[in-house]
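B., you asked whether I could sanity-check this one before it goes into the benchmark set. Here's the sequence:
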Amino acid sequence: MRGVSLVGLCLAMTVAVALIVAAAPTMASLSAAVAVRSAAYEAATALYRARAYAIARNVHVGVKFRRNGNRYEWALYRDGNGNGVRTAEIARGVDKPLPVYVPWARRDVLPSILADCRVPDPGNPGSALDHPEDPIRFGASDICSFSPAGESSPGSIYLSDGRNRMAVVRVLGRTAKIRVLYWRRGDTAWRK
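And here's what the prediction gave me:
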């Protein structure tokens, strides 16, 4: 007779279930790592777009993470009076929004810093990040500004999955070079 016995089928299913159960934590960890890396790439892309817009149009541009209804987006603003893009001037309508924005459709990773653990400061080894309520840091602002020459304000955007993983997208001052680093709960330092 051809076919499979009930005992053989039960044994095969038991092995398959055991393999799935054993692989689940690894798959969840891999999924979380991919989500954080993807979010960091999206944030870096928004910054590259803002810089390209400033250079191509010969204007000062700022990129700001803002809420639009129940969604988030990276929005570009043009300097309206020659003193840089400023939050107060955006609110007053002096620095106008540009018709360029990058929707942030993610709900798994948002600009945030894990608050329930010690997160090392990537710019100051040995110390921890302060102010976990402030994940977007460009000096005293949350706007990354770019000049027509392609220079930028230095700063960092911290992203987290709210559980164990983070990324930081760092913009390095005048050169506007972007570096992305990653951190996982339990690590003592950020990694490339």
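One thing to flag: Helices lie at 6-57, 87-92. Otherwise nothing jumped out at me.
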